[in-house]
């Protein structure tokens, strides 16, 4: 048996070991595995094959799946091909790493080293199982709300809401900012005009008649008198 064949076999076995730990998700199996029939905590990476940041964290993500094996299910979803699921979860950037447990979805925002991701995921699981709060290193992202009187609802028929800022308040603040800027500019214009008026008035009041013009002026008034 040649060394080349041995290396090839080892590579295949290594790949199989990673694939058994890292679960490949798609539009067809996502809802049934992650949302509907699962009571597990899921740690899922939404990625794009061409994304350089996704490529850099590939090995760490595979190691994370191995470290969390038997504790938390770790998945991979290509957001460029599995468009339905990516759209439902409002994926706008790559990679996006989400922690999903039943109806709660959180976005991971910490280190992308395998040991750090595994540690944060374990702590997050403890928090979710104990009190359902927002785990450290994560932010609230989506809320899964099944329709009433429906025991099972696929994710495509659910209402996933993204938390957004209060739009009326944001619009009011923008309007107030515009008004204040307009008022500030008006004050500056008024000050400039006032200073110009004062300058012109001062010159007019301070003018003296000298030379021939002064003599003509006096002669004219003496003649009138």
TrEMBL record:
Any one Pfam family match given in the protein's UniProt record, by short name: Thioredoxin
Region forming the signal peptide: 1-19
Keyword Transmembrane: yes
Keyword Protein biosynthesis: no
Gene Ontology CC: endoplasmic reticulum lumen
Entry's transmembrane regions: 171-195
Entry-linked InterPro entries: Thioredoxin-like_sf, Thioredoxin_domain
UniProt domain Thioredoxin: residue ranges: 1-126
GO terms under biological process: response to endoplasmic reticulum stress
Keywords: Membrane, Signal, Transmembrane, Transmembrane helix
Sample GO molecular function, one term: protein-disulfide reductase activity
Top-level taxon of origin: Eukaryota
The name this protein goes by in its record: Thioredoxin domain-containing protein
């Amino acid at each position: 048996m040649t060394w080349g064949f041995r290396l090839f076999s080892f590579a295949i076995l290594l790949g199989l070991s990673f694939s058994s730990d890292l679960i490949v998700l798609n539009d067809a199996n996502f809802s049934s595995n992650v949302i509907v029939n699962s009571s597990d905590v899921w740690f899922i990476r939404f990625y794009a094959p061409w994304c350089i940041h996704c490529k850099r964290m590939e090995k760490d993500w595979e190691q994370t799946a191995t470290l969390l094996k038997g504790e938390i299910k770790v998945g991979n979803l290509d957001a460029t091909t599995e468009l339905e699921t990516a759209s439902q979860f409002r994926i706008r950037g790559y990679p996006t790493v989400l922690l999903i447990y039943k109806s709660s979805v959180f976005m991971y925002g910490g280190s992308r080293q395998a040991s750090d991701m595994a540690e944060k995921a374990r702590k997050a699981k403890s928090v979710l199982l104990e009190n359902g709060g927002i785990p450290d290193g994560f932010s609230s992202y989506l809320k899964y709300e099944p329709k009433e009187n429906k025991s099972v609802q696929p994710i495509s028929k659910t209402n996933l809401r993204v938390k957004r800022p209060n739009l009326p308040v944001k619009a009011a603040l923008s309007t107030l900012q515009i008004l204040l800027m307009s008022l500030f500019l008006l004050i500056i214009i008024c000050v400039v005009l006032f200073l110009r008026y004062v300058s012109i008035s001062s010159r007019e009041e301070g003018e003296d008649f000298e030379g021939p013009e002064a003599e003509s002026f006096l002669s004219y008034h003496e003649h009138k008198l």
